[in-house]
């Protein structure tokens, strides 16, 4: 499907790179029914694959002649809540950082929190 077709659907994605810009991606038919604002998605970005956050859905189509790539997949898990999106948007504007970087900072680390280990050493009163 080309970017010029009228039945195409687009989403704006905040990417965790130091650029204060949103990027427009094509949404495949398979994702149209399940995609929501705040969804975490895997996207092609240059030669890399990144994880971004959908911040506008549906979004306006890109300017004529601008090539768009499709969202590759929807990541499992819950979407970023609207309150966190609003807070990170404020942080992005106030501190002049990329919205995607602010979102990444507000989320728990990938893989969840690292469990703490407690080390207990028994000593006797006679030990120095």
Q: What is the 3D shape?
A: elongated
Spatial order of the strands forming the largest sheet: 2-1-4-3-5
The helix fraction, in percent, is 10-25%
* Strand tally: 5
For the termini, the CA-CA separation is: 76 Å
Largest sheet: 5 strands, antiparallel
> What series of H and E elements makes up the topology?
EEHEEEHH
CATH topology: GIY-YIG endonuclease
Number of domains: 1
Strand content: 15-25%
CATH-assigned homologous superfamily: PriA, 3(prime) DNA-binding domain
Quote the average pLDDT.
87
What structural class should be given to the helix and strand makeup?
alpha+beta
In the predicted model, the low-confidence regions spanning at least 5 consecutive residues are: 1-5
* Rg calculated over all Cα atoms: 20 Å
CATH class: Alpha Beta
Describe the protein in words.
By secondary structure, the protein is α+β, with helices and mostly antiparallel strands. The protein has one domain (9-106): PriA, 3(prime) DNA-binding domain (GIY-YIG endonuclease), CATH 3.40.1440. Helix content is 20%, strand content 24%. The protein has 3 helices and 5 strands. A hairpin with an 8-residue loop joins strand 1 (9-14) and strand 2. Helix 2 (82-95) crosses helix 3. The longest helix has 14 residues, at 82-95. Mean pLDDT is 87; it is low at 1-5.
